[in-house]
Amino acid sequence: MSVHLYNTLTRTKEEFTPLEPGKVKFYMCGPTVYDYIHIGNGRAFTVFDVIRGFLEFVGFEVTYVFNITDIDDKIINRAKEEGVPFNQISERFTKILFEDLEALGVAKASVHPKATEHVGEMVALIKTLVDEKIAYDVDGDVFFDVSKFETYGKLSGKRLDELRAGVRVSVDKNKKNPLDFALWKKHKPGEPFWDSPWGQGRPGWHIECSAMSMKYLGATFDIHAGGTDLVFPHHENEIAQSECATGENFARYWLHNGFLNIDGDKMSKSLGNFETVREVLAKYSRAVIRMFFLQKHYRSPIDLTEEGLHAASSAVKRLTTFYDNLSSLTAGLGDSQAGPAMSPGNTFVKMRSEFVDAMSDDFNSPAALSILFDMVREANKLIGKQMHSDEELLTLSYVKETVDAFDQFLGIVDRTESDFHSSDLIGTLLDLLVDVRQELRAKKEWGLSDKIRDALSEIGVAVEDKKSGPAWRKMDK
Ligand code: AMP
Ligand code: ZN
Predict the structure, then answer these.
(1) Is 67 in the pocket of ligand 1 (CB under 6 A)?
(2) Which of 52, 381, 382, 424 has its CA 20 to 30 A from that of 102?
């Protein structure tokens, strides 16, 4: 089994071969912490969380770095507006970010480096570039000279001469070339600053990601990810400055998620057309939001619509009901016995491997979900039977183990909605009612026993008389 992924750098789908067999070094551009994250950011963080989880599922050991940009113009501006120190803003929104990530079911990264804690590494990197005359200092501002990097534009597919033609006037008189970008920004009154060989100042945004990724993953690492808006200039600049400083290739595979749009426009803070992750989570569970993202391929754009969220909601309900019933039927059976006992020709074994193949094909989650729902349909036929042989129960136990394993990285079974089984109280009450009904039947009090069964049916619980005794299950809606 091999994983293929679309690499923005080569514009082709490639077989993924990590530098070190079995290990993946993965960097994801995190947010600038100056406000609540919106659901578009939520998409980026969720899809890469799923990709990371899938890579772990297929056996890779993943070192996942998700940085926090905690020094930037936007943070400084907000701090000025509120009249507070800049770190009060960044600390407040870092805390909120982690709460939101947890609420979305995004797992903690191996490291969450903060830019302000890595200024020393950034200064060292800039110094190398200045010493090599690839960067220049103009009165305390340091710029990267793009003309020194021959392959500038290789990620975005832009050519330097085309880019030059597109930029007529340089916004900054200090730059030799309008495309040159800031590595170090000279200190301005009222702004935070650090010491450097070029005087007091603060790092530019691009150098932050180069310094933090290379510190934790090495000069060359496997995957670098972010939204498509970051391809140019952010990632292009990261490549230029990192490769010039080290003389080595920087990231080997570049993954970019498509945008989440609203009413035809990309969702962004600057356009003011955003809904925060919190606002959406107040209306829909995390499972629904994740399902909504995963119903589209991570590279495709996605429209945020009520219909889309409702469709995701129905899909989550169907899966969760299914999962509840599976859990109820297989309670007490060990998952582990099922795997080895299954024959390779078994429908569910085949479906499991088709699902993994779909995910291995550039993380094609819509195709994988459609296989998962085929599995639900097939297994529901078994669940609906009055009697279950030991072999059927073992098969269902295998299906449950499969859904559990997939859901570790998908996160689309609604564990909060999974009420009948997660709530001990409801489960115990249902067991009690089923027992009472059984005693009534033993006394041939059919009227009352049927009344209990009908009343339960009205609230969506079926009571079935099985070989092993009566049992209840949640009905499909
Ligand atoms: P930012 O804080 O703007 O740098 O965004 C953090 C991450 O979210 C980056 O990887 C962006 O590319 C991504 N992102 C921003 N807006 C959207 C959007 N509307 N849809 C999908 N991803 C986005
Ligand atoms: Zn970055």
Answers:
(1) no
(2) 424
Residue whose entry in the numeric block shows the structure tokens 């990285």: 409
Q: For 271-286, write each residue's pLDDT tens digit.
A: 889 999 999 999 999 9
Task: Name the segment(s) of the chain with CATH classification 3.40.50.620.
Answer: 4-281
Ligand 1 atom with the smallest distance to the CA of 32 is: 2
Ligand 1 site-directed mutation target among 8, 49, 229, most atoms within 8 Å of CB? 229
Q: What spacing in Å lies between the alpha carbon of 238 and ligand 1's midpoint?
A: 17
pLDDT in tens, 440-456: 999 999 999 999 999 99
DSSP class of residue 264 equals T
Going from the Cα of 332 to the center of ligand 2, the distance in angstroms, rounded, reads 48
User: Would you call 117 helix, strand, or coil by DSSP?
Assistant: helix
CATH class for domain 315-417? Answer: mainly alpha
Each residue's pLDDT tens digit, 305-354: 999 999 999 999 999 999 999 998 888 776 555 666 788 889 999 999 99
Element (H, E) at 232: none
> For the chain, where do the domains classified as CATH 1.20.120 start and end?
315-417
* CATH class held by domain 4-281: alpha beta
Q: Determine which helix (DSSP H) or strand (DSSP E) holds 46, and give its type and residue range.
A: helix 39-57
